[in-house]
Fold:
Amino acid sequence: MSAGADGGGAAAARSRKGSSAEDGFVPSALGTREHWDAVYERELQTFQEYGDTGEIWFGEESMNRLIKWMQKHKIPLDASVLDIGTGNGVFLVELAKFGFSDITGIDYSPSAIQLSGSIIEKEGLSNIKLKVEDFLNLSTKLSGFHICIDKGTFDAISLNPDNAVEKRKQYVKSLSRVLRVKGFFLITSCNWTKEELLNEFSEGFELFEELPTPKFSFGGRSGNSVAALVFQKS
Structure:
């Protein structure tokens, strides 16, 4: 999945008032597979014609933030890393350039995986695995990852018009399945606050660290437009 800089993406579809949604989110096309298939079909065509890789969800700063955390905590370069909803795969490229050698990107959009493959090939990288996978309906082959990363996929699932609450619960179950015990889950969200994410991932996961994100001030109050948390599977 793909979007703009920090604080962008799916946040515009959020509403805490006047919404019939159980969790306070207004259902949106941003939560549907059809939307993302169309997005990546366009981005794939643009890449083929102009070489433009497309936008990066939450911007380059978000990628640097995650890689710096992995460096700070001395995550081994051979640790297995799963990018959930990899979109154009640009983050996979950055991980590979940093030296990580066991990297997998999944997305439920075949066009996203085709685009990722084209970008990775252009970069001359060969140590990245790509799979068309629906994270809510996984194959049996994905398991045992040391690190799982989400930049906007949980946000999009939260906006699905078809029973988003149950889909969020299934997401947590899938995460528990693919991440090994004591493994780390790094999530960046523009729709959920720290407190809300702690509640969503309360079963089987513990907060390990909150990552610094850009702050904003409005009307004498300040806050963060993006939440970035690291959970550890218990």
Notes: Residues 99 and 208 are 24 Å apart (CA to CA). The mean pLDDT is 83.
